[in-house]
UniProtKB/TrEMBL annotation:
Keywords: DNA-binding, Transcription, Transcription regulation. Residues 77-261 form the IclR-ED domain. It comes from Hungatella effluvii. InterPro entries: GAF-like_dom_sf, HTH_MetabolicPath_Reg, Tscrpt_reg_IclR_C, Tscrpt_reg_IclR_N, WH-like_DNA-bd_sf, WH_DNA-bd_sf. This is IclR family transcriptional regulator.
Length: 263
C-alpha cells in the first residue's frame, strides 16, 4: 500500500514538473505577455492549476506579472542561467566524451568541424586506436566545404544565395575524380543529404578515404557543426557503416541533445 502511494505521488510530481516546463516554454515563445485564461486554454490546464504554477514561477523570479494588465511574461533569469551553461560548456567540451567513446568503439577517426568563412575548420578530433589522422583533419586544419562530408552537411542548411556566394568566393576545385565540381551536382547532393539526414565523402577530397557525416543541432534546431567518422576506403565499407550506423547516430543525438536540440 505504501509503495503504491509513493508511486502515485512520484507520478503526480512528474506531471507537475511537465506542466511547469510547458508554461515556461509557452511564455518564452510568446511575442506578447499572456493572460491567465489564454495560458490555461492553450495548454488545456484548468485555471487554478495554471495560477498555482505561475505564482511559483513569479515567487522564484522567472515570471513577471503586470499589475495593471494582469498579463504574464518571462523575465531574463533564464537567460542568466543559460549564460552560465554556455560559458561553462562549449561544443568541444560537450562532444569530446561521446567522440572519444565512438572512436574507441569503431576504431576509426571521429572529427568535429564548424564552418568559418565558407571553409570547414576542424575543432576537435578523436583518433581511433592505432590510427593516424589525415593532415586535413588535425585540430585547426581547414578543408573545402563542397568535397567533405562535414562541409556538405553544413551546406545542406544554407540557402541557395549563400551557396552561390561560397562558389563565387571559394570555387568548386577538383581534388579527385569524384569531386562535385558543378553547382547542379552540389545542389543534388545537398538535397539528398537533407532527405536522409546525413552525408558522405566518397573519395571526393582524398583518394582512398571515406567518411559519413551527421549534423549537430542546437536548441534552435539549427546546424552549428558536423561530426564525421572517417577512415580508409577498405575499412569504411557499406557493411561497416550499416552495422555501426545506430551507434554513430546515438552519439550524434546525444551531443545535439546536450546542445538543447529535442527533435
Amino acid at each position: 500500500m505504501e509503495e503504491t502511494e509513493h508511486s502515485n505521488r512520484f507520478a503526480k510530481d512528474n506531471q507537475s514538473t511537465d506542466k511547469v516546463l510547458a508554461i515556461i516554454e509557452l511564455l518564452s515563445c510568446s511575442k506578447e505577455p499572456m493572460r491567465l485564461i489564454d495560458i490555461s486554454n492553450q495548454l488545456n490546464y484548468n485555471t487554478s492549476t495554471t495560477l498555482r504554477f505561475l505564482n511559483s514561477l513569479e515567487r522564484n523570479g522567472y515570471v513577471y506579472k503586470d499589475r495593471e494588465t494582469l498579463k504574464y511574461q518571462m523575465t531574463y533569469k533564464l537567460c542568466g542561467l543559460a549564460s552560465h551553461i554556455s560559458n561553462r560548456t562549449g561544443i568541444v567540451e560537450i562532444a569530446s566524451g561521446p567522440m572519444k567513446q565512438l572512436s574507441t568503439n569503431l576504431g576509426e577517426c571521429v572529427c568535429l568541424a564548424v564552418e568559418q568563412d565558407y571553409t570547414v575548420v576542424y575543432v576537435h578530433v578523436a583518433d581511433g586506436p592505432g590510427q593516424m589522422l589525415r593532415t586535413t583533419q588535425r585540430i585547426g586544419s581547414q578543408a573545402p566545404m563542397h568535397c567533405t562530408g562535414v562541409g556538405k552537411v553544413i551546406l545542406s542548411e544554407f540557402p541557395e544565395s549563400k551557396i552561390d556566394e561560397m562558389i563565387r568566393l571559394k570555387g568548386l576545385t577538383r581534388y579527385t575524380s569524384n569531386t562535385l565540381v558543378t553547382k547542379e551536382m552540389l545542389l543534388n547532393e545537398l538535397q539528398l543529404i537533407r532527405k536522409r539526414g546525413y552525408g558522405y565523402d566518397n573519395e571526393e577530397c582524398e583518394l582512398g578515404a571515406r567518411c559519413i557525416a551527421f549534423p549537430l543541432r542546437d536548441y534552435n534546431g539549427q546546424i552549428i557543426a558536423a561530426l564525421s567518422v572517417t577512415g580508409p576506403l577498405g575499412r569504411m565499407t557499406d557493411d561497416f557503416i550499416n552495422s555501426n550506423f545506430r551507434t554513430i547516430l546515438e552519439a550524434v543525438q546525444d551531443i545535439s541533445y546536450q546542445l538543447g536540440y529535442h527533435s
